[in-house]
Amino acid sequence: MILLYFFIIFFMLTVLSFFGGKHSKSVSLVSLGILTVFFVIYSILDFSNYTGGVISYYNALLASYSASGITVHINFSIGLTGFSDLLVIISLLITMFAVLMGSNSHGAYFYGLFMAAGFGLAGLFMVRNFLFFYIFWEAVLIPVFFIIGKYGTGNKERSSLKFFIYTHIGSLFLLLSIFTLSTYYFLNTNVFTFQIADLMNVAFIIGIPPYAFYFIIFGFLLAFLIKLPTFPLHAWLPDAYFDAPYSGTIMLSGGLVAMGGYGLLGILYPISGLFPRYLVYFIILLGIISIIYFAFSALFQTDLKRMAAYGSAAEMSFITIAFGTALLSTGYVRTLDLSGGMYQIIAHAFVAALIFASLSLIYKRTGTSKIYELGGLNRELPILSSFLLVGMLASLGLPSLAGFIGEFAVTISAYQSIGLYTLFIVLGLIIIAAFLIWAAQRTIFGYFNERLGRLRDVNKQEFLILFFMMVASIFLGVYPTLIFKMLTAYASHLGGLI
Amino acid sequence: MNYEYLYALILLGLAGFIALAAGIKTDNKKILGGFAFIVLIAAFFIILFQQKNYSIASLNISSFDTYWALIFLVSIMVVIIPSMNDIKKRFDVYYAILLFMALSMVIAAFTYNLIVLFVSFEGVSIATYILTAFNKTKRNLEASLKYFMISTVGTSFNIMGISFFYLSTKTFNLNAVGIISFNRALLLSLVFITIGFGFKIAIFPMQQWAIDAYDGAPNSVSAFLSTGGKLIAYMILLKFLFLGFIPDYNYVFFFFAILAILTMTYGNLAALMENNLKRILAYSSVAQAGYMILVFALIGYSYYPAVLVSKEIFVRFAIASAMFYAIAYIFMKAGPFIAMSLVKKDKVMIDDIAGLARASRWTALFFAIMLLSLAGVPLTGGFIAKYFLFFSLIIGNLWWLAVIAIINSAISMYYYFRIIIYTYRKEGENNFNMDPGIKYSVIIMGLITLGLGVSFALYTYLAGIALI
Lengths: 498, 468
Fold this sequence. Notes:
The complex is a heterodimer of chains A (498) and B (468). Chain A is mainly alpha-helical and 498 residues long. Chain A contains 20 helices and 3 strands. Chain B has helices spanning 5-25, 29-49, 63-86, 91-110, 114-132, 138-169, 184-201, 208-216, 219-226, 228-244, 249-272, 277-292, 294-301, 311-339, 356-359, 361-375, 381-395, 399-423, 436-452, 456-465; strands at 54-56, 59-61. The chains are: A mainly alpha (498), B mainly alpha (468). The A-B interface holds A 62-65, 67-68, 70, 72, 74, 109, 131, 134-136, 138-139, 142, 145-146, 149-150, 157, 160-161, 164-165, 168-169, 172-173, 175-176, 179-180, 182-183, 186-187, 215 and B 308-309, 312-313, 361, 372, 377-379, 383, 387, 390-391, 394-395, 399, 402-403, 406-407, 409-410, 413-414, 417-418, 421, 424, 456-457, 459-461, 463-464.
């Protein structure tokens, strides 16, 4: 029940933030702060003895119809798993960062939209019903569409449309898959329902004819892989990231990308044991191509923001790989693989937020994010460029920083299932490292571009924001157990399902 | 005999004459409009609470018919207040016509006799010819003339269709159609009926008049034409196809699957290239008609052997989603048309809407919500209607049709969002005439659209009363 109250209060605070007027930023920040503290305490209490599965489950029957042997149930149910609990916390924190990084000139709508996106994300990770899953899946898109389309820069209107239509096509196929699942469930039981627990059930899925099953997994994979994004489905990503305001980019890279990862590992995984082998290999192949392709694309970008966008996509490809390779392995390796993938989502949120936040502050001072117009920032902005450097190092997977844990876990467990092909993943990692270090060399170090003039380093408030993100990145790198414990409990439970 | 059903009809008819008579003394739009509104609300509640589930002659007063009657009344109610701004004079005649039209529509909702259906349908048609030309500007007259010419063709097709139907079934009463064997006359009747009523619904080859008429008519009349005027033809066709064509269901499926695909694809593609805002809305209403007639295809398909689930279930779901579509459609389609009155110009291009958000942000927000609802975005009425329509397609094993519909739905996103983006642009906030009547109509209709987006219980209620 407490979760339901949390949900309702979050919704009311979201509505409130639209009416905040001049105080909208502080209203959103205070409400997000309170919600985060509340939720963290709640999850510490709730997850102290977590052993996998859905806990703090709440279910309400919204509408039902039954006659002549047919029953239709429309439920609203929420619950948390170890994974989704962490994602809710992440979405709260990322929304808070995004609001903090928002410039003070924007009106109440700006912060209201961020609150709405955050609410959509938190709702998405909480619901255990496919109807509401779809509703929240779409509900996140709308505020982000407006954030890009209204407050963005450059070709913002086209980018926002592209972003929306791309993801919407994916989600419509997701919708069809949900319908097909529900129809076959009805054939088995004479009950129409959209409950995730009922529909994502191997015992029931195994009875579905193969063509229907392929249709279903096609829809799910399309929606989730577009969102992640994976190689051929990524065209929305660079434009949307680039034209969004910096806070919007933080929201996109930290929050929205987690939706795809959550879809793969949190929703689709229980039935993925039934995937045909070649599909699994194909998914792994897509993941490997994505890493290498995105890393190479990032290498040749002339703009730091666009480079970081491709870099973020390359990082997320580890989740595709973790999803695929975990299907080939068993036992502890599978658990490690899955929890590595999940960990990567969480670590990536902080790391990407740190990178984009420092880029945002650099842009504020220099008025540019082009690599060749920057250079030697270390001289004028020592603190800010150190933050950027930490972000980049964390992103390339330097041990003791956040990115390392997930990438390492995924890579070593991928070796157990695909053998020497892991070399391609390592190759991707090397290119990721290459473009990040090369970019750092050209912007942070070297000769200072004198045309930029005198620059002012971070003030106290900006320092605190970045410092918090940096501490989070380091903390996740040196003390992963806190989170890893929850993830492994959930992952071993998942592994047992298939 | 139970004559309770007559009360609402008598009330509406009398009120129409009273409005005309009052016109001798006054042409005050507030008095006349208020009177018409109160009468419609009274009729609404009389129909809502009257005794149900009995039939007299060819009238059938069930929950299904009552629902449609209520919807038609709502579709007239929504244009009463906005038209105070659009219509320039002779409000007595205007509101009397609306009341007479309400009378025709309520009769059409309850009757199952083809002659009565035809007459009441014509009552609505003739009324709308007058309404389209009501302001007597050149644009109005041109639109009305086009509409009149084309509709007359449609009418003659209707008469032919009904005659052929009688020829093969020997009855005008849809309730009394028994099991009949397939014959050519029935097939001809299906073709003629589809063309005749298809003109009014604006199904693909018969759509072009609608674009011109919606564009040229006064905004609130366009709002009515694209909602109430369309839904009555839709309901008649629904009754007709569901009850009348049992041996011909193969043809029904074949016919309407193709027509639906063509209609929605044409509407969406044409809207992509259009810059005139009212024409975009008109094309979108053609596309919406395409989604709505998927229900007919599904009714036809229910007689195929390849069906997975028993046909009663998904036809029930399909008709329930058509009924939900109807109520959601009234608000989400009439709202944008009414919002066109906010722009000072007569011919509204897409850049004329730029800056609406600066002029009034709540209006812009709810305008956007109605467009989102047309696009089928969650938490709006249009979403639930589309969601369960596609759901029933999937249950009926028509995946390919659902996929085509969904791709169309994704294409349509582009032009709806294009309009929304324009409303949030920074320039041109002085283009608008913030009449409070229109402004609050738009806001209230947007709120209702949002409210419908969470009324799952309404859908399940409709599923309970869906089968005729």
